[in-house]
Amino acid sequence: MKRLSLSALTLLLTCLAAFSQRIMKVEKTDGTIVDYPVKDVKRVFFEGEELANLVISTNSVSLKVGETSTVEITEGSNNYAIVSNKTSVATAVLNGSTITINAIAAGTAIITVTDTQSEQTATIEVTVTTSDTPIAYTSCPDSNHPHMIDLGIGTLWSCCNVGASAPEQYGNYYAWGETQPKSVYNWDTYQYYNGSLSYPDCYVNIGSDISGTQYDAARANWGAPWRMPTLAEIQTLLNRCTSVWTIVNGVYGRKFTGPNGGTIFLPAAGYRWVDELGDAGSDGGYWSSSLLESYPFNAFGLYFDSGGAYWSSDYYRGYGLSVRPVR
To answer: How far, in Å, CA of 170 to CA of 29, rounded?
Structure first.
């Protein structure tokens, strides 16, 4: 029998002394814990000695659609896995001990973090709300009007008229500078005309451009940042978009298509004068916010029919015309 060297004997005695107060245990793959040695060992530990607890920096996150947030794993084994129970609402990406959460859509999701060594878990409740900035579409969705439409021309146009709940509906009619519809449209009922005064003082001056002011029907009815388009914005619509005469849900009008493929439909809503609706189904008349300063009897607007679309300075301010908001 080979004799141990003095150094080997010293090491053995040291180990025996170290183990004299502790019992070596092993955890088997079936979860049972037995004395060492044993087959099918999963991990080896001293009795009373456990792996580090799994700890994360927060258990709840609130985001708006499109935002991201990070959660840190502050304690654990450095071996982790993560999963979202609703990837349509929020997704999560693990990089080391940092979890990056991405908000996809409004709703609630649970992100589960698992320490794969200790099998401990922790959860993060993610609440996602809609963004403060509405999404600009290139065509109008089927519900929840109005929507912003991006035509690729800078200004975002609404999908429908003020007073309408769908793109093909006519909506309300407004005299230029007035913010409420009425039953009779003429100079006697026009709020900013004083027939007792001579020209041009008979036309009350409310500004040469009323976009975004108290006289703006879009701003007054829909709130900021919606507003009436200026003459320049109508000219940009005409210059940079193509348009075709078409029918949407039985209603005639013009569809404008921008350079990015975005589209809006403007129904041929006609106009109102006195108590009658004229040219509905054949003509469209839409106010701009711009006054014809050289002749304040009129304001500029958009006119179209089956033959084409043009900007016009021929609209009496007292006419009842449609308003299509922009922002």
So the answer is: 72
